[in-house]
Every structure is written in C-alpha cells, then in structure tokens.
Amino acid sequence: MPRKPFVGGNWKSNGTIESAKTLCASLNSGAAAYRNKVEAVVCPITPQISLVNKLVRKSPMKVGAQNVSASKEGAFTGEVSAGQLKDSGIQWTLIGHSERRTKYGETDEVTAQKIEQCQEAGVSVIFCIGELLEEREAGKTDDVNKRMMDAVYGKIKDWKKVVVAYEPVWAIGTGKVATPEQAQDAHAAIRKMISSAVSEEVADAVRILYGGSVTPENCKDLIDKPDIDGFLVGGASLKPTFTDIIAACVPAIPLKKPKFMKVDGVEPAARGVNFFGKVVKAPTKVEGSEDLMEVVVGDDTAIVTLSVRGDRVKVCEVGKTVRVQNAHVSMIKGFIRVAVDKWSALKPAEEEVASVNEKKDMSGVEYELTNN
Ligand code: 13P
C-alpha cells in the first residue's frame, strides 16, 4: 500500500486567539485541495486546542498537542497526561521535538516514557528526531537518528499510531533547508533502521516526515523524494499558505493511460509489489512530452517498460539495477498492468540481477514523479 502523505503544523509558542481564528479561516478555505488525500494535523498552544478543534471541525484538519506527560495523571503540576489528551478528544501529540530535547532537557528515556503513555492511551504520536549541526559535520547524522529511534522501539506496540519526523536541528527556524538529497539520504537510512529493528513491513508503512525551514516553495522538490512522506512545518504553518504545502503532497495522478501487453500465467491483483530490474535500454524521450522518458528494466524472467519523469531518470543507467517498490500489479482481461504511482519508489538497488531476457515483455508502467 502506498503511504498516505502526512503534514503537521507546529505552531510552537506563537499566536493569539485572534491570529488563531484568522489562521483557521485559511485552513478551512484551503481544505478542498487535499481532502481525503493527505492527513493533516495542527498543533496550537494548549489553551487554544479546543478552540482550534471547533474552528476547523468541518475541514479534514485534525488538532494535536505539542507535548504530553511522561507520567499518568496525578500530582504532576503543569503536566497533561496522554489519557487526558484522549479524554479531551485530542488524537495527536508531538514527542521529542528538538526544542524540548535541547531547551527542556528531554532525554531519550523521557521520549520513550511519553511514547509508552501514548500507546497505552491510544494517542497517535509524531516522534521527532534529528541531529545538531556539529553532529552532521562530524558525519554522525545516522548515528544520532539511530540512537533516538533505538530508545523507543521497545515501547511501540502499534506502529499505526506513530509517524516519524526527521528534523535536522540546524534546519529548524534557520531558513537553511536540507537539500532534497540530504533529506532523502537520512530518511532512507531511518527506514532501513526500522526495517532491521522492527520489520520490513513496518518500515514500508511508516510515514517519515521532513521538518526544518519547509516552505511552499521548497516543499515540492522534497516531496518528490521516495522516502519523504510529508512534512512537519513550523514558521510556514503560521501563514495562510500552509495549505499550499499540504496540497503539494497530494499524490499525482498518472499522466497517461498505462500500456497493456499480453502475457501468460501471471496471478491477478497484487498490491505493494516490489521488483528489481536491470536497466536494459537507455532512457528514450516519449514523443509529445517535455520530460517523460521511457526506460526498460528487467530480470531473468521478464522486462517492464517504465515511464519515468524528472530526476529519477538519473538512476536509470544501462546495466544498473533499480528497485521498484509498491507497484500495483493487476490482471485485466488477460492483460497485465503494472501501475507505479508517485508513492512508489524507483531507486538504485544494492542487489544484482544475473541476466536479462528481453523477450518476455510483461507490462507497461505509468510512473509519475511530479505533482500537478
Ligand atoms: P521551521 O519550519 O520553522 O523551521 O520549524 C520546524 C519545526 O521545528 C517543526 O516542528
């Protein structure tokens, strides 16, 4: 199953009742552009949660908290427990934001306790991780992310209630956004970590958001990356154009009808199909299209023609093995269709395929890489 995009707005300690009302009006008017296609949550300051909940109730926007207690309810002045969030109709909370880690001493152990509380209460979590500038410069990005993730695996029973937000601290509030390649590399590494620590199934399904100086302008190149499933937005979530960022995450519709080719002996209808293929023909331009390229990949059983748009054609060098993830394979009237949408991934693979049989062409594939 392709992952449903997710966008969170973290209002931090900003705003007044008046500004919240104005912002909610723009959240409502921008909702049609992403309804049912992107999951969206805003996290206002605690006293505004119920007001914002009320103001956006007709839109698909959900409302979350920015923090939650590591303890159950009781004599903990200033704390709000996960059970109390749930009781107040609040489905989401942030945990482990770098501002809480660096300014309020929230440790890995505390994030783990908070996640445990949320899992028990059934509250969904946007779990934030990410490295400091000096850690990136020392080449420790993956180590830091691994340490933060390792701390919480043992507490998570229901991964459907967890979204991971990779927020490099040097990119937060600085206007210095990670490049799409930097973000993609970190996200792919996080997904691999989850795959090793939990399971491939969980790793394939979990949404990993990017956060740090995201704007309506820079979000499009980021969302194009296969392992970036949405955003956690700070400053830009306080502006009426926040919904443009959400709308940019709507998966694109295939540009043209997939081709159909007759084959024998293929079982019908399978979703989430992953396959490897060696690129057997250099990409060729599709006539009548500006940037659509056709690439033929295969293995020793079959070949597939992919229509590839945008940057990802760069991975399609002849002889290289690529990995197509999450394709939807179906049999229609004796013809096989392999549909690969934007939320599928085409990437260089570590595996090698031994040989390629160019005779068994099994399908046409629509591969869409840009939003429209
Ligand atoms: P900015 O988008 O303002 O950089 O903040 C990101 C963030 O901290 C979201 O949680």
Total domains: 2
* SS field, number of helical segments: 11
Number of strands: 16
Order of helices and strands: EHEHEHEHHEHHEHHEHEHEEEEEEEE
Q: Identify the strand order in the major beta sheet.
A: 1-2-3-4-5-6-7-8
Determine and state the CATH class of the largest domain: Alpha Beta
CATH topology name of the largest domain, in short, is TIM Barrel
CATH H-tier superfamily of the largest domain: Aldolase class I
The helix-and-strand class reads alpha/beta
CA-based gyration radius: 22 Å
Shape: globular
Q: Main sheet? A: 8 strands, parallel, barrel
CATH architecture of the largest domain: Alpha-Beta Barrel
Small molecules (ligands, ions, cofactors) in the structure = 1,3-dihydroxyacetonephosphate
First-last Cα distance: 22 Å
Low-confidence stretches: 254-268, 341-345, 351-372
Give the percentage of residues in beta strands: 25-35%
What's the pLDDT, averaged over the residues? 84
What do these coordinates show?
By secondary structure, this protein is α/β, with parallel strands linked by helices. It has two domains: 6-248, Aldolase class I (TIM Barrel), CATH 3.20.20.70; 261-367, Nucleic acid-binding proteins (OB fold (Dihydrolipoamide Acetyltransferase, E2P), Beta Barrel). It has eleven helices and 16 strands. The strands form two sheets. It has an eight-stranded parallel β-barrel, surrounded by five helices. It has a six-stranded mixed barrel with strand order 10-11-12-16-14-13. β1 (6-10), α1 (17-29) and β2 (39-43) form a beta-alpha-beta unit. α7 packs parallel to α8 (180-197). The longest helix is centred in the middle third of the chain and has 18 residues, at 180-197. Mean pLDDT is 84; it is low at 254-268, 341-345 and 351-372. The structure holds 1,3-dihydroxyacetonephosphate. The site of 1,3-dihydroxyacetonephosphate has 14 residues, from β8.
